[in-house]
Structure formats: structure tokens, C-alpha cells
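Quick question, first post here. What does this chain look like in 3D?
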Amino acid sequence: MRHHVVARGACLAAFALYGCEQEPIVPSFWLRDVVHAHEQFIVVGSSHDQESVHAMLLTSNDGRHWQSVSLDRRTTLNGVAHGDGRTVVVGGNEHEGDTRSLVLVSTDGATWEPTFNPPGEALDSIAFGNGLFVAASNRFVYASADGGTNWTKSDDLRFEWTPSVHFAAGQFFLTNRDLAFSTSTDGLTWTHHQAREGFGLSFVGDDGGQVVGLFEDDDCTDVDGCSTPPGGVAHSDDGVTWSEDVLQVGAPPTGFAATVDTAAMSTRSGIYVQTPAGWTLAPPTFDGDGGSDAYYAITASSSTLVAVGDRIAVSSGGAWEIIDPPRAR
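> Answer (accepted):
Ran it through. C-alpha cells below.
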């Protein structure tokens, strides 16, 4: 399960509805996902304090100047995906057996409408491919063939942990930093696979026609206690058989994206950029003194990279700029 890390000593987002032991200095942000669609960047997440949690949906034309979309919903937004001219956002929360799910759909990136037949539980992630939106909760996987309006539950999977859903090489992937992962072409029937020995698969994406997989050392989940780098990158032609050499990075990876000339990786301890010498930490996402922001997702336009997590990081072919998001409205 992904760690619910938030910025600057505030309470964990997962417990924002239930109260916190330490009082936040300012409302804290928990940005979960980002996509480039409708010629803009779209970020989803939540802001929270001791009293409540508020859905956050941010948009930006350039990745540097952000606007908050007014939603007035006390819930979390966890995932966003785009396909066939539609952008679908999923979220919700569960508390004391009461499940509140939310699915928002937009055809222009400006007007967002809730669907009236969402799955009956909070959704944690979403991906688009093969004409389908596929979303995962902490128990089930759902597929939508009509742009996020109606959802069909897969009877092929049920789990006790929360997976992430991705799409690459014509198939969907379910990963959870585990030694096993699953693939499907329709989101309903799944085939199970073993990841590389000793490494759990956390993310799958596209890298110029090849499948890129981000791995974590299964024996090294505590970064401070690792004797070897806990994260790695491997490539595959089919998403099942991976390259032998896992290129090592110094933090558990969470996402991969590339512009026409720069590849970058979000991790739970800064952002790595691919250079001729290998993967290198990009200041100021990592300050060199042991401090860094956690980033949970990254995406790209043709020229700009945007990563989100504790804060927003943006780069257009050079230095990275760190941006505090606007408050939810």
C-alpha cells in the first residue's frame, strides 16, 4: 500500500477524517495523481486539517501557474486518466463501514460532472487503454466501456491490499510493490505473473515503445536501513519478461514519464532524471542534506514534466521548480 505521506509535519491524509494528534500549522496537501489532457495538466488529491478533508482538483496550462477547480466535496481524489476525449477522476473514502465513492467525468477539462452509477466503494487508481477505463479499489477491480458512467466488477480478483492499475503494451497491469503482478486486456479477466526475483513491481509505463517497469527491493523497504539502493528500472518487450539488469536508484520509485528529450522518475524521496551517467537526483527535489519531498506520480507533455506528491515539481528541459499548490475551493 502506498504510504500516505504529507508535507511539513502535518497529519497523515488517511487519518484526516478521524482527527490528528498533532495540530497542522496550515492545511496540508496530498496530491495523488497527474495527467496531461485537454492541452493542460490536471492534478487530483486532497487537502486536510483536523476538521475535514477536501477534494482537490487543479489545472494548469504550463505546470507553473495553477487554478483550483471548485468542487466543495469532503472526500479524497485518488486517480485520474484520459482517453477517447474524456478525463475520468476517481476517489472516495471509507470510515466505520460507510463507503463514499466518487467518479467525475469531463470532456473539456473545465466542467466536471459526477456519474450516478459509481462502484460502491472508494477507488484508488485508474488507467485508460483498449477503449476502457479500468479502476481499482482496495478489494476489487472495475472496468467501464462507456467513459466512466457504468462499471463492471471483475470476479477474477479479490485482494486484501490496494493495487495500482497501469496500461502499457496493449494491456492493463495491477501492481502493488509486490513480487507478483497481474495483466489483462479487458480489466475483467486477469493473468498472474511473478516479478523479478527479490524485486516487487510498483509501476508500469511506456518508454518509447518499450515497456518500462519500476521495481523495489523486496528486502529493503526502509530507505535509511538499506545497504543497497532500494529502487530500480527495467525494460520489457511484452511486460512479462524483464531485462536482466535492474538499474538502481536510491529511493522507492512511483512513476515514470518522458518528454521528447528528457526521461524522469518520481520517487518517495525526490525526482530522478536520466543522464548519460545514469539516473541522477534532481535538485531542488532533494536537498542533499537528507530532506526531500515525496512524489507519487509524474506525467509529461511534449516539453514539460510535472510531478506531484507533497508538492508540485515542474521542469521544461532543465532546472526543476518546486511549487506549493493552491488551496482547495
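Residues 1-25 have pLDDT under 50 and may be disordered.
The longest strand covers residues 28-37.
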